[in-house]
Specification:
- Helices cover 0% and strands 50% of the residues.
- It has 123 residues and is an all-beta fold.
Length: 123
């Protein structure tokens, strides 16, 4: 069973930056896709970015393309989400998730989820 723990959220002004971390334990992630999702009050859970443990493939939602960067450190079993040029509409709880399925954009495809970390962007 996989455990995922997010950290790095907080309050930041518009235009600022945050780096979220997702530490994974309890499983070998060699064939997994790691995804970041977010959910704002009253909204559905939304795909943000994803990365494979093996290879170079990364994926981004249009809303964050060019501003967010997903990366990994396999030795540390950690995935990061660097968020730059933050906007108030980025405010949400951000979740880290893992799946062995290929539909990285679909939250239903993910097996494991972290507890979430709050990101609040003030205007």
């Amino acid at each position: 069973q996989v455990q995922l723990v997010e950290s790095g959220g907080g309050l930041v002004q518009a235009g600022g930056s945050l780096r979220l971390s997702c530490a994974a334990s309890g499983h070998t992630f060699s064939n997994y896709v790691m995804g970041w999702f977010r959910q704002a009050p009253g909204k559905e859970r939304e795909f943000v970015a994803a990365i494979k443990w093996i290879g170079t493939s990364t994926y981004y939602a249009d809303s964050v393309k060019g501003r967010f960067t997903i990366s990994r450190d396999n030795a540390k079993n950690t995935v990061y989400l660097q968020m730059n040029s933050l906007k108030p509409e980025d405010t949400a709880v951000y979740y880290c998730a893992a799946t062995a399925r290929s539909s990285y954009w679909d939250p239903v495809a993910y097996y494991y989820w972290g507890q979430g970390t709050q990101v609040t962007v003030s205007s």
